[in-house]
Structure formats: C-alpha cells, structure tokens
TrEMBL record:
Keywords: ATP-binding, Nucleotide-binding, Transport. GO terms for molecular function: ATP binding; ATP hydrolysis activity. Gene3D superfamilies: P-loop containing nucleotide triphosphate hydrolases. It comes from Planobispora rosea. Residues 1-231 form the ABC transporter domain. Pfam families: ABC_tran (PF00005). This is Sugar ABC transporter substrate-binding protein.
Amino acid sequence: MENLSWSVPGGDIVRNVDLEIGSGETVGLIGPNGSGKSSLLRCVAGVRTASAGTVRYDGRDIRGWSARRIARHTAFVEQATESETDLRLGDVVALGRMPFRSRWRGPDRADRAIVDAALARLGLTGLRTRGWRTLSGGERQRAHIARALAQQPRCILLDEPTNHLDVRHQYELMDLLAGTEQTVLVALHDLSLAARYCDRLVLMHRGSLVASGPPRAVLTPGRLRDVFGIDAETGHDGLGNLTVACRGVARDPA
C-alpha cells in the first residue's frame, strides 16, 4: 500500500497509509471502532476503489484488474453478514474455486479435493450437506474461511474472523492462520490474541497508521491509553506470550 486513502463526503476514512507486507507474514490490523480497518481491507481486496494511492501485489498495480484476477491472488473474508441463501455449506465453500473455472465448466476432481481439504481444516466435513439457514453464526464464519482457503490464494485478508466463534475455535483459527505459508492480514479486536499469533501489528487511529512493529513495541501503555482510551498494562502468560490487561477506562483518552 502506497499513500493509500479512501474518502467520503464527510471526510477521510483511510488517510495516506504506507504499508508493505512480506510474503508469508501474518500481520494483525488493530485499532478502535471507526479507525478505518475494514475500509483499508476492502481497498486492498479491490472491493472498494481507493480515492488516492496504490495497492500492489508483487509490485503490480491492481487498478484495472478484474475481480477474477484479484481473486486468484487474494481471498477476502468480510465480517459475517446475514444471507437468505438456500445453498448447502459445502456449496458455499466450493465458491472458492470459481476464479479458476471457466463459465461453462463445473467442478472437477481437483476442485472437489481442494474443497474437501478446506472443509476438513475447519472441522466442517460433517456439516457439508447442511442448509445455510440452519447453521449457527460460528459455523457460517468457519464456512467463509474454508471458502477462502479453497481459493488457494497467496494472500488472505480477514475482517474480524473470530467474531461469532467460541474460544476453542478462535484459537484453532489463529493457529491455522499463523501456521500457513500464505500472507495474512487480519483485523482483530482481541489484543492479546493479536499479540500471541501475529508476527507484526499495525495500529490504526482515525484513519491513519500510527504504529507498526512487533507486538511488544506497538502495544505500549501509552498507545493503549491514547488510541483505545484504556488504562492497561502488558505482561506475559505462563508460555511467554504477550498479554494485555485492562485496568479501566482512561480519564483523558486522545
């Protein structure tokens, strides 16, 4: 991302973001509500056209790329939304193969094997024939992530993927993302989860990127107070993972 901005009539939502993410890196995108995380992800995914600046994959500007071409490079998992689809869960995951099929060709053996593997990785094999309307929010969220894996992209973008997931599935998902060879940019609200699993954290505030680096360098008490409006301290759990403990609301947040 080079000088990336996205604006609406009321002002800038994303402002002059410069950020480079290395191949295979897992980067956590953090910040309070309204800081521009979702809008930034949508610009990077090509879902939204930036007002200014450039998004490049491997040095190539994605302006003018078709949705199919972008989908062959990156998968985007948005925050779960309501849907009235009558598709089965397995059919939703199989949509991840669409960018690689011609309009007239149905799924072949290779496509089906890729979908089977994605379902297995998210623990959804036994639910593949279930109708979408019968699924819980967490099951739908896992299905969307399985669909992204079925795309076999080089880069995965995720907007609050742990929403609707119970504690076990939150940790299973983050284990999966941290262990993949793919490049991952994931927006998260849980700061301790982000600190534990991400190679690097990117902190946004009021549309701007205000810090980027290792979790312990980004999650300082001063930044937690100024950006999130909380009095908090960082520590380590019994396994040496960075933790964030909130003591209360700061009296004078920025």
